[in-house]
Hints:
Elements: H1 2-7, H2 14-24, H3 53-61, H4 69-82, H5 92-105, H6 111-123, E1 128-129, H7 134-137, H8 139-151, H9 158-173, E2 185-186, H10 189-198, H11 201-208, H12 216-230, H13 234-242, H14 245-250, H15 261-276, H16 279-286, H17 289-305, H18 309-328, H19 339-348, H20 368-384, H21 391-396, H22 399-404, H23 421-438, H24 443-448, H25 451-462, H26 485-499, H27 504-512, H28 515-527, H29 535-552, H30 556-574, H31 587-601, H32 606-614, H33 617-627, H34 633-643, H35 647-655, H36 664-679, H37 699-704, H38 716-723, H39 726-736, H40 746-756, H41 758-776, H42 783-851, H43 853-870, H44 907-910, H45 931-938
Antiparallel strand pairs: 1-2
Helix pairs in contact: 3-4, 3-5, 4-6, 5-6, 5-8, 6-9, 8-11, 9-12, 11-12, 12-15, 15-18, 16-18, 17-18, 18-20, 19-20, 20-23, 23-26, 25-26, 26-29, 28-29, 28-30, 29-30, 29-31, 30-31, 30-32, 31-34, 33-34, 34-39, 36-40, 40-42, 41-42, 42-43
Amino acid sequence: MAATQMYNPVGFSNNSMTQAVTSEKPVIPLVKHIITDEEIGLLKGSKLQPINMNRVVKLLTDPHSVMLYDRHINALQRLVRHYEKGFPMKDLVQVCKVLNVCSDKTQERPMYETLICDILKICSLPFLKEKSSDELIYEQIVTESVSQLGYLMRVPSRDVRKQICKTLVSFYTEKPSSQEVQKHKPTSVSYNQNIIENSDVSETLVKSLALLENDIAIKLAVLDVLQHFSKNSAKNCDQMLRVGAGNRICSRMTDADPSGQLLFRSVDILWNLLEFGDGGELATQLDNLSCINQLRDAFVFQLTQGYSHYDRQLRNDLLVIATLVASKCPNAPFVETGFAKQLTLFATFQEVKSHNVLVKHLKLMKNHEDFELKKLLFNILVTLSKDSTAVPVLSEGHLMLSLFSFVRANENTMGPRDWTSAQFEEVQLHAMSCLCALCPLMIEDYMTCQGSTRILLLLEWCVGKEDFGGHGNSIHGTGGRGSKRAQMRHCLRLLRSVVSTGDEVVVQDLADQGAINQIITILLNAIHSQRGDDAVDVEMQSDMLLILSCLCDGDMHRKELFGTTGVDVTIHYLNTDSKLLSSGLGHHRLLLAAVDCVWCSIVNCYGTEDYFLEKEGVFLLIDLLEVCPKNMHNLILGCLLDLCENPKTIHHVLTWRGADNASAPHLFCDIFRNEERELGVRRTKDGAILDHTRPLMGVLQENQGVIPQPAANPSQAIVDVSENMRAKIYSIFCKIGFTDLPGLTVDDHVTLTVVEKYLDFKMGEVWNEVIAELSEEQVRPVTPDLEAIEAISRAIEERVHIVSGTQQELLEAQQNQDVLDEQEFYAEIRENHRQKEKAMNDFTDFVARTSNFALLKAAGDRQELSIEASRLQTKYKESETFHSTDLKALHTTTFSGRTIAVDSTSNRLTGGPLGKYDPKSGTLRERKFIKQLSNITAK
């Protein structure tokens, strides 16, 4: 109540008080007039004055006003004036209708052409949007409207077509300097480009080229549009390729053109299609006689008649496009059109003299374009060599002789017209890379050019002491800057490609020229080099080992040339640390090449084989087999199998011991089990046979089933022999035997029973396939054959059961042995416990004897009785010669002597060996007896 009186002292009610306060506030008048931005001058730009587009369309199409041409023109002129800043997106449908109606009237009334061009000029401006969401809302309408612009190319008017091209280029690329319209914003260039990509205007323009073959000016304008559209746009390129743009453009790119733009624009479009489109589709479209002829004529014209930097670039672009066609379409008609012959002529005219008119006055300079042309010519000829019909053309053009002219030592001095030293090195490496692909295809030309001599001379220069500062240019010179390694690398690659053909004439020629000794010497120098190997060094060493393998394979005399020095080299590489296999430098290839070199260069040559065994080569091979990846096992097992033909090898195999003292037979059995595990062969958990009808068949072979095949084709059972290593392991065991093998476990013995009968099981598998194929073909053998087949099947099945029974016996014996071992182990534990109990009882007796004299005396009496019982004479004490050996008054039950062994006094009492040493004076000090010791002495 006090609070109430304070706020209401005179007694006014609350309602009357609220009314008094409200009446005192000033009243703000409400003004309903709104001032717009336009009235106060905030809007910039011109004001859009829209017109009723539906009325314009009705005026043009209504039957009653269709002949009122003057009114049509006035209405269209007014439309152009009102929308001179651009068309709003919402009116594009009516604008397209107006354009289509006017285009249909142009043939009768040419006056409409000017109006169409005026409207198209406005269409070149970005469309206007009132809201930001208009771009998304009207996207489909805008896309169809742009497509309609392309359809207007049907109008047979040069002015209209030219204006369409200008409109599309401007709409796609240009941003207007000023397009300010009140309450509207123009679309962005990126939005316009997206609209073009989503429309089909690119396809329409490509199709319209067929209408413009006789009008070069309009054709150039259309190509200009396509040139802009195909630049940096994969969608436009795909649309153009979808309607055959490559074929349409390339087939007419050498038409008469006074301006010289047709070829340039055509090549630029093809290049854009190659870069941003599907290269394979483009090559397919160019794979025909007309396009190849056009490429040939354009290239020859630019090469022989061109003189400017622009002409050289255009020439090289044409050659790149031709290379694409040759690589994607190996059967392209380059030979039929004569293009391959001309390319060979242009590639070789500098090194091989020719009287052809095309190259009579042709010169290649040191500039970058001519240098690139030389490499491109070599590259396209290598690509053409994939077609067998082109190889004779390359041979007639002396391509091999031209390429081998670069296989020579690099000279520091170059003539004024020659390539620079850096350019010559790059062309040299490129030429050697081309030779790697061409020499196997042109062996006769290789021998004619004395290729072996040239390569070996260059290889000798590479390892010589002549100074050479390599430039290491291009991808072919990787790792060779400042040295000859790049040249040496390509020499070895070239030798590898030549000897891999297996041509006996080439191999014999290389051997006669001392290639074996030369390569072994290089390998010896690489072994004793102090510099660490990188990827290039490892690659070159691998190539040299492969070359030696190819040279020595199958020839005893060359294996003798390989000799003990080659064995030492091979042993060094077999000693490669297995940890380097995952280094990424290619050591896995090096090890494979070393094993292959052993197989091809050492095996079957008794002198080198014996030396290889003396160097413990077999041990190294099995060591490698133990640690290497699975993909190397097949090669190593094959090499070991051939080595086992030498009886001395078997002792080495049986002597080998690996990790955890594992033997070689155990390792072979383990590999056999792993192989069957990967094949999915059905085995029990102990490795015994589970499926008696398919003892060797894997899951893949079983799923494929039996398919009737001709007799010349191998069946699945035969293919299985070469696809896995089980046959090699069986063959190795046939050499070393199946009994008395060291280091085998029970699992190994179980596996060995299957290995021993591998050939019988495989034979049964083949017979089962024969029976299944006959059943599939519904063929019944004659009765004697059928009886023989059934007898063979029963015999093999019986063998499977016998092997399975043997495996079960082995497993049961092992199980019984495990039980015996377990019992012996428990017996040993029990014996240990008995010994502990006996020791405790002895200690108890000892304590009892020391504490109770009666027990001690009784123990002494028992001892006397035991001694007397052990003697043969019972009354020996009564004889005259008896002498007592016991000590009188001895209270022990042990046999004691007259001397007692006492333990040494502990260091705790004496102070240790340095107890007399005085560290301050450095002398021995007088001994001080410990008080406890002196008390003991006093007592």
